[in-house]
Amino acid sequence: MSHVELQQISKQFPGVTALDNISFDVKDGEFFVLLGPTGAGKTTTLRILAGLEHQDSGSVLFDGEVMDHLAPADRDVALVFQQYSLYPTMSVYDNLAFPLRSPLRRTSEGEIRIKVEETAQKLRISHLLKRKTAHLSGGEMQRVSIGRAIVRSPRVFLMDEPLSNLDAKLREALRVELQHLQKTQGSTTLFVTHDQIEALTMADRIAVLNEGRIIQVGTPEDIYDLPASTFVAQLVGSPRINLYKSQWEENTVTICESDVQLPSPLESKLPAEFLVGIRPENVKPDPNGSFTGQLILTEPLGVETILHIQSGQRTLLSLVPGITSFRLGDVVKFNVATEHIHYFGLNGDRLQP
Amino acid sequence: MATIELRQVEKKFGELHAVKPLDLTIQDGEFVVLLGPSGCGKTTTLRMISGLEAVSGGTIWLNGRNVTWLHPSERDIAFVFQFYALYPHLTARKNIAFPLQAQGESRETVEKRVDEVAKLLRIEHLLNARPNQLSGGDQQRVALARALVRRPEAFLMDEPLGALDADFREAMRSEIKRLHVLQHATTVYVTHDQIEAMAMGDRIVVMSEAEIQQIGTPVEVYYDPANLFVARFIGSPGMNLINGKYSDGVVQMAGLDNRYTVPQEWQSGLKNNLDSETEMVIGFRPESAQINDRGNLIGKVYASEMQGSSAVLHLTINENDIIHIRTDRLIPYPIDALVHFDIDPRMVRFFNSKTGAAIKPEVTQ
Question: What is the pTM (predicted TM-score) of this model?
Fold first, then answer.
């Protein structure tokens, strides 16, 4: 396993800057997620790491060793893609054995058998070893693809949205299995996704990308609790963060066009106008609450309920546990957990009060 | 406004049942969601209501009128597919007006109706823009406005949010529901996404393998699933389900030595349902278990997930079963650590492992 460094990587495609001076490092054994919307540069970053794409400037290092001029095969990385690229005419066993049978490796068939069986067990596909991959379900195929990557011990695993094509239940299950596998194997893993819940749940650290730039790097808690910009704050968290233009006057922050007035943070250095961000779980209905709104919509999700509370012209989302006894049209009193309020400048950058 | 009634409606393709005979009554003004995995028959059912697909048997009634063999255009039902396909060369206003003009409505009526629906969707300021000048979300709003402007008796929607990014999907989900709250048009909505179904439906029809598994409110399907399929399918993650053996008020779970004492009110129900069998399934939702050092049950840490406002701890309790316990914040347990927990006795459920059906507690009065 390996320590991976990207140093000042830039990449132009005709008419677009795909990557603009990207630097980060992935520690040995770390599960590192690149998170961002379509076109952010996540896949390009991964392809440059793999050697499938060449950067215009900057360097890729594995354990301090420059990889820039090495071909993909010589970098010793394993790739898993969204589309399973299995050999349909081969059995699951032969698909798993394939990377080990490379003439460069000279692994004996006995050794291969042990490794294939071990891998199959980890991925719960032991019962499928004799099947042709064409006869597998989507979830089983993706398990085999992952198996083919982990059957040997490459320096780095590179995964490009491997769960995106699976249905919700399978995605949930594989997400947990993949995390368990990575933690027990201690493999250095770079995982690309546009799905914020995959990033939060699996990552040791996340790099948020947008338009070819890194916006923030941090643990899931850093990204969720201290988003560096409104872009990150809105990208992460479901339901989405309440984000409204606000003003400041006489130690009071007022969310524009609403009845919500909050105590201004001490030593405030807020500009005249800015944005206030409040995560829905921090808008808390409370019979003694300071604010009043009207309930205009409820969305019961089972484990919790989303309340849409209208205050003035603004609608605040509130996330409460379980099923609510509120009815549409009810006047709802609520509080805001002031210690969890985020402040952003009108340009979107986080303000440090 | 409309009531829709399906009586023994079925669809066969050759010998294969796409939809087995089903009965369903949708009340005037109700928002009913047909929910299930792909191939469960939900879209076929919707297409039969619309008239795009002929029934193989049974009858369909709209406001008490038998419409089984009427042409789709004679049913006065609007069918909304995934929202896209705006005319790129027309302004938002002309796109929205299009279905009314096609119906030959007067110019004044068209203007008035477009303005009304634009106000409802808060897109008045966008009416003169062309689709390529609009953001993705605004394009979807214009497409929704175009569907709404006709004011049909009922709406049929087939995964309208399926093609959207997670972000828009969440926003559009609440906008469609808000519209329904304001307008109360009878709506039948098809999705494979249980979160969408829970969030939007007055009632949910859970389907699997061409059959209705359960019809109920979101609260009913979540807390009292009719069978193992519904228990698993609803919720994210679904209900924890563990195989066990029942005797004398105690469930012996498979795997680790977990013995669960069944609450009194369930004991006679279990005894009657299981008869001489002992095999059964015990179920509880991830938020219905509490980690507690003195808890009676035990599991081994498999993984933990930070999900934003909450976290989930995954425990193995035997070779095959991973259970999920929800916590407020991530507790960084090492893998393989042993964790004790209890199940909230009001939230435990039981299922017959042969039939998969939920076992009812004894009704006490």
Answer: 0.90
